Amino acid sequence: MASDRDILPAWVKPAHYTVSLHDLEFGGSFGYQGTVTINTNINKDGGFSDLVLNAHQLKIHAAELKTGDKTRSTKDISYDEKRQRVTLDFGEKIEYSGEATLEVKFEGTINNIMAGFYRSKYTPKGEVPASVAKDDEFHYMFSTQFESCDARRAFPCFDEPNLKATFDVEIEVPKDQIALSNMPEKEIKPSKRDGFHTVVFERTPVMSTYLLAWAIGDFEYVEAFTERKYNGKNIPVRVYTTRGLKEQGRFALDNCHKIVDYFSEVFQIDYPLPKVDLLAVHEFSHGAMENWGLITYRTTAVLFDPATSADSYRNRVAYVVAHELAHQWFGNLVTMDWWSELWLNEGFATWVGWFAIDHLYPDWNVWGQFVTDSVQQAFALDALRTSHPIEVPVYDGLEVDQIFDHISYLKGSSVIRMLSAHLGEKVFLQGVADYLKAHQYSNATTNDLWSALSKASGQDVNSFMDFWVRKIGFPVVTVSEEPGQIGLRQQRFLLAGDVKSEEDQTTWWIPLGLHTGDSASASSLHKTTALTQKEDTIRGVNEGFYQLNKNLTGFYRTNYPPDRLKKLGEARDQLSVQDKIGLIGDAYANAVAGYGTTSGLLALVERFEDESDYLVWSQILTNIGNVRSVFSGSEDISEALRKYHLKLVTPAVEKVGWDFREGEGFLLGQLRASLILSAALVGHKATVDESLRRFDAYISGEDKNAIHPSLRRAIFATAIKQRGDSAFKAIKNEYLSTTSIDGKEICLQSLGRVQTPELAQEVMSFIFSDKVAMQDKHSGTIALANNSKVRPEVWKFVRDNWDSKINPTLSGNLVVLERFLRFGLNKFADEKVADEIAAFFKDKDTRGYDKGLEVIDDTIRSYAGYKKRDEKVVREWLGANGYLA
Question: Where is the Peptidase M1 membrane alanine aminopeptidase domain (predicted)?
Fold first, then answer.
């Protein structure tokens, strides 16, 4: 057994499961009975007397082992709760090697914590069959979420990614409900229960337990077919919803069948299953889950109504559909060998998901989105001491949930984008296709991918990518100028800016993307392509213009001398959207870490008031918002920065206007929504007045079309900030009555703009009432945490209600608890608060969210250090530039 991980004994391997579920309770205790028959291969020298499987919160009634012509029953069944295992003891030594069949009878519960086999509450539209589970207020649908280690909550199994097997599934359900699984329905068998029958599904391909799925409910669907033929047939593609919502699945459906065809060509392997089902699940801990052939989604990630949805969700649905479909090959067909290589699944699916959306929607500037969103978020987490390498040791499967984070997904995908840019897209995708063909229906490692890419490119990929994947952090490249040449120095970038020499031992291979020439428009690629040592001098650099990391394809920060930053700002019209985002993002990060200054950032950003691109504005508003957040405790600086922000956005918001025109671009609509929200919150009078006028017309019922769906968040947030209690009540009521699929999320985000401690406490109490689904409790909390006026109330609420509300409500699903804490408490810039948080959790069992607490601590202390260091400089610059009263 590998000592670096806690895994099941290696001498027994599953080959096939038959999972049979019956006597499901559609109400009451929501129990169910099950039988699982597992065909195994046993190879144990010296014999054995027991078998160990994974099981969690299941009751095993009996088990039988058939070896050859002999059948033995268990004499003792014991549970190891902590390791989520069950030991089946047969009471005698069994000398046997070869094929054996294990049959286990068990019972479980259809829980309400979004893990394993669980139930989701919803309010139905239209008539509902009498058999559908319900209570006084809600109806329920049933579905599964097994990744990473929750198949064991639904049935006893060998729940590790490299223990692949085939699966037969049969479920006894009411005749008037629909049952779904990974494969199409094979047959319907009669049941002894009145009004029930048993649905039997076709056998799955060889796959990991975490990809098995099933669902039961009052479902309906919209359907399309792939244009390509697979085994002579067009594959049916369906989006399933609970009754009354299916038409909102059309946008996802249209994307889905095109992407299946596109990936089949890109990966040079046909989609391997006979169907693709997408299911909208009313309560869902993640965004979506790539179960093979039955992909599950939270409703806002798969449903879209052009009449009532904010347009930002169009982008989200398209991308999440593509990401999950990428997994059907990269993750499902070829699976990581162990959870330490989770990034192979997630990093690649993130990159190739955007790659597909770029193919379908070239006008969306997908790589600009990627740079302002994915790359910057990855930088933010990886700039902490408490970050982890992309490929991170995982001792047991229970640790893995905490690495479903911005490192695995976003740094992973950023590094893949960097490699693809270096090798060339065509060569890169050929290497990926070769990798998939070589390892299909089995498991693979990072080195297997590097080998395939090395072969396809003729380059030693491992030699320059290894550190990016296996070492923590990323570099900042500091530039110094001399006539005709530049000096470059790489060191590890830390947000706290205090890198110790022992933390700076890595020498990364850094693709320079150096462009130089008389001017930005005349620049061309320099012959020196990479920095491969700690320091180097690059000659032949034209002082008229030069720029590193063109289009931000390399995963590193650049620290230019102040004068060069100014010159690049002056040449901004010649820079790409990605270049501008990189310039601003780097200037901000260097200011926080102390490699640059906040005054340098503020002076650079001032030049962008005539900017017209949404993605560049998104970067500006995020970074200036963070600076304002850090200095919010100093009244004079806070007010001066508000004036700065107001002056910056005024020309842009006045130019973009209020009206969405037929046929205008997606990104222009996003710019309008973003600028109106930003301008109103910093007090742009005309925007505030118009927002309130529209709010009153909408809330009074006088004109329900007064607010465009994409402007709800901006207008609701403005009303909450300006009107306080009356707007709070109105938006709470909107939350309870909205029928728009994204309405609840938007209302919660808006409630976070309250301005008094009393209202903030009311918001938190509302979030922790049964009116707000568990999956959404972080949405409103994050909005409050981002609001410096009431931020302390979030921590106060957590502290005062930990034992009574927070822990009991969220601890059943540690993914949700960790996310809630990490994003709810990481915005402070005060070491005193960091000390309080650390002291509060010191004596608690924090397994499952301990890494989140480390991130919170590191982030707060880094921002506190930044505030202390730059406060004087910021005050001086604001005074010199006329912003201080």
Answer: 251-468
